[in-house]
Amino acid sequence: GADGPESRFFISQDIWKKLSKNFKEGYVIAWRSLTSATNRRTMLATALPLVPTCQSLQLLQLSDNRRMLHVLAVFNSIVFDYMVRLKMAGLDLTQTILRQIPVPQEMRYEEQMEFKGVEGTIELHLNSRIAKLYEKDKRMDALFEAVDLYPLAGNRERKEIIAELDLLVARLYGIGKAQLHRIAASFDKYYSEEELERWF
To answer: 174-193 burial by CB neighbour count: b if 16+ within 10 A, else e?
Structure first.
């Protein structure tokens, strides 16, 4: 409409207040719970302002935005997705399944490394790329206010930035290049052979 987009579905305010009573922060991580190990990607996660969502989304919230960004990077990586595929029996990606999957130790994010010509912590490299992917959505600006970032050099396509995030998360897990190449190759509906050779 003339006043902007209008929602297709609505929820009663009372019901939303009950559903969201445990969420105190401004952002959540949401992922699609109805999925399959044979999909192009099994784990599809995003950060959202706290708003009502549809039924097939699971929500997670942490009180610290830095840790929310850590979880967002890991959830969206092919390494995590690979482990999700090994655990998935049915079509429902529940929090119970996610709790069984190992995540990198918090101290790993503080590890210094040179990446694409820039020296910094793994956290700095990750956050700079996540912020770039969300830069057009102004609702997300506050999520990045308290974290350090640097501008990315060159005019890179989104998929290349996503591949760089995959490389960084593999480093957090201590996964070597050959092993990561094998994991990336198993996502043949997501990374083409040409992308595989170029980035991995």
So the answer is: ebeeeebeebbeebeebbee
